[in-house]
Amino acid sequence: MRERILAVNKLQVSFNTYAGEVQAVRDVTFDLYKGETLAIVGESGCGKSVTAKSLMRLNPEPPAVIKGGEIIFENRDITNLKEKEMQRIRGSQISMIFQDPMTSLNPTMTVGRQITEGLKKHQKLTEVEAQKVAIQMLKLVQIPNAESRFKEYPHQFSGGMRQRVMIAMALVCNPKILIADEPTTALDVTIQAQILELMKELQNKIDTSIILITHDLGVVAHIAERIVVMYGGKVVEKGRSEDIFYRSKHPYTWGLLKSVPRLDIKRNAGRLSSIEGTPPDLLAPPPGCPFADRCQYAMKICRIEMPPMFEIYQLHGAACWINHPQAPTKVKEEV
Amino acid sequence: MKEKMKEKMKAKMKEKVKEKDYLVRINNLKKYFQINKNTYLKAVDDVSLEIYKGETLGLVGESGCGKSTIGRTILGMYEATGGSVEFNGVKVFGMKASSTKEFKRKAQMIFQDPYASLNPRMLVSNIIAEGIDIHQLLKGKERTDRIYELLELVGLNKEHANRFPHEFSGGQRQRIGIARALAVNPEFIVCDEPISALDVSVQAQVVNLLQELQKQYGLTYLFIAHDLSMVRYISDRVAVMYLGAVMELADSNDLYEKPLHPYTKALLSAIPIPDPDIQKGRQRIILEGDVPSPINPPDGCKFVDRCSYAEEICKTKRPELLEVNPGHSVACHIWKDIKD
User: The pTM is what?
Assistant: First the structure.
């Protein structure tokens, strides 16, 4: 078993809004091991980005509040660190790439200055030393003419190149964890392929753990070793990539997998299977399973009590009552 | 031999039948945007396509390849720089005002962003009936009944008529957009990335709806998207665009199983398949570099800078889109020499 470097335990994050308390993340629990790629998958509004941002305490507080739970990183609970202490972790121990490389770089600073910023602050390098490291980093992320591009501004870069700059910036201090929040969603497929290939390569070289937030199951199949599936602010299933894709034990995961058209499947006249209905309102989340209203297997208990995470096999777990030993056999047979 | 001949004859016959049945024919369409005095952005550069009655033609390509511009130019939202568009055999540019109005009733559009394409100050009922009012199709109770009918058709209900767009989710808004397009009994609908702003499980709902409506009303779709898996699912034929030009055009299954153009091959191999085992065993072609700017595109083949097979001729002469197999056209000088 590999070394565990991050443990998220029953994390609860809420946002206080005029309409009331939005319970965006409810009792989320997962671990991250050294050198692995963990994907957090789910549709918009399922709480995946809020979870990721909590790991770096990047949700604006207020309105965000960490209502409970803990995030253990290097034997310390991040959830109650002071801002000063948090700044020491951000960018040096845990760093993040965002979805939109157009808006997450500072347009008034040269790319070089943005990369060296972290080096000077965290590793106390001098300007000259920092420049050397930064240029090396730009070469590592395969930006041609690194020396001259170092002095350019973000608007002089294309979308794919900007995402490379973001990756360089995130990895320059050798962080232990890299959080990638939809890193390729804003990019074209041919560029997406380049970036994913680059991330894989760099992970082997630097040995960071990656948390990949995405809704694209294709990307997940390509890059992730373990998967956490979220729905309505909760983790509904987690396991190794093969467990989730081939042996899933949760109806939401089934629906998600079935509703994606696949490139290798022929055009047919049949209907694409879809999940009817919409996700629950997190202002007043249901007491039971959040998926119960859209689930064709829903039983009485599903609406009353949230199912616990049933352990299926080793790392594979699913929060669905159909995995309970006393669940009606009829449902099990259909499964 | 005989069988081959027969097959060829059959294909030819099919073509002839089809040729009569096209609904939209695009001839050498060009759309240039002027940047400054002497520079033009060539968004659509000499594109010819036919769209048959009742089919779905998928139009795919990366951002900036001109796919949306084609859709908009066909409908007259942009003025074409050159070329022509025929609808039911009649040229649509430069028609009389009354005929233009009639064309605009028959050809509708569904937009990408369901948040930006519905006027936030208008009631859903008025949004849907805007076309009906402009074309003075129905009035009074008939108009109201038609609105209710349309709402139910797209899977919403009557009560939704008196609400505002902000009260709906993305998927529901897209349904309103579809109801608006259908309100005037169109024959042809340009779907400009109608699902890319939606979540996967909702995408499937909207695509199913579009397909049902097509069957019910015999609609013809131009389906513009960058999601190649979804395009394969919904389209009869698919055209692949790159930098304002069509690179390959073929029957949907043909294109995905036997792509001929090096760009199509790279594009298809770049899309990850949601299945770890298959994904691991796949050979992927990773294209180097970015899409060049359409302001100064290469003289010859537009793909020449990123193509690993490019030869001298590709740099100087632009390849034409030629039919190389029945129903399968490709714009490449050297497609025959490329072996996998």
Answer: 0.81
